Amino acid sequence: MPHLTANGCRLYYTDQGQGEPVVLIHGLGSSTRDWENQTDALSERYRVVCVDMRGHGLSDKPKGNYSIKGFSDDLVCLTEALDLQRPHIIGISMGGMIAFQLATDHPDIPASLTVINSAPEVRPKRVKEYAMVAQRLVLAHALPLSVTARGLARVLFPKAEQQTLRETFEQRWCENDRKAYLASLRAIIGWSVVERLDRICCPVLVISGDNDYMPIERKREYVCRLGDAHLEVIADSCHATPVDQPEHCNRLILDFLRQSESSRQPQQEITGA
């Protein structure tokens, strides 16, 4: 199994296809496996790299605190080690946060960003939001991981016909290391790069499920603060949009990547000349 060391942590990754590089970043408690509906579709045209972030999947699970910036720094090491020049970055949920962190810290790295059901900050601002954050932290630390996994699976896949998806994801979440999962959850709360969004200079696609946790209006607000960015809403989808609406999600991603390529081509030709 391919691994590389980033900042003292061995990271598992997959690498398939040829063409411009695309890096897929999973969400909290997830892994490379949850991109299974995207890798084949994307690798027909691109070099697709999926990575298990530290504390997740088949990567090392070091003790101590984690941070979104730390995850991003690991990702920078991965792009350098695999010689991924100007990769397209795609992240869901926590993975979208990591993408935002990388793009604001290193605006020269990404050729484009695709952010799915995520935001550039997780800072509660209203009493109700503080209560929700506190409840999630308390329950996550108090309940067994199996109970958390069962509850999340029901929220993400509420339909009767999604029983197989519920069972699959519940089993996968139960495989998480509890301490690493909680450290990753704590890394999210209070994080923000919203004041540095003007540093992002690449095209940005924001995809939202119509039934995602975060209201669509909140996503519209931060999209307006970005330069070359637009929002696409996928109907009949919750938080795990690449899983519950894979074909629609893949179509949006592929169209966006092609547009990003074509917009870069004239500049590349001028530079080459």
UniProtKB/TrEMBL annotation:
SUPFAM superfamilies (UniProt xref): alpha/beta-Hydrolases
Keywords from the UniProt entry: Hydrolase
Keyword Hydrolase belongs to the record: yes
Database matches in Pfam families: Abhydrolase_1
Single GO MF annotation: hydrolase activity
Domain AB hydrolase-1: 21-241
Top-level taxon of origin: Bacteria
GO cellular component: membrane
Name of this protein: 3-oxoadipate enol-lactonase
